[in-house]
Amino acid sequence: MQQNNRNKKRRKKTVTPKICRFCEACVNYIDFLEPELLKKFQTEKGKILPRRITGTCLRHQKMLSAAIKRARVLSLVY
Known about the structure:
42% of the residues lie in helices and 0% in strands.
């Protein structure tokens, strides 16, 4: 068996801190009737992008995911 994998040092990935764009704009509610805004936070297949990629805070990520799910029901986004 190879024991080289255990002894290899892993590099820490340096991630630049991201600031929530909704907090900067003092947004209190994310409207589900704005499909152009919601599409920026989805993949091409329609999956919701995670916080670590978008840089949104927990509060706005929850509002964002709820808005995307409501817009899906109304067929505004997929």
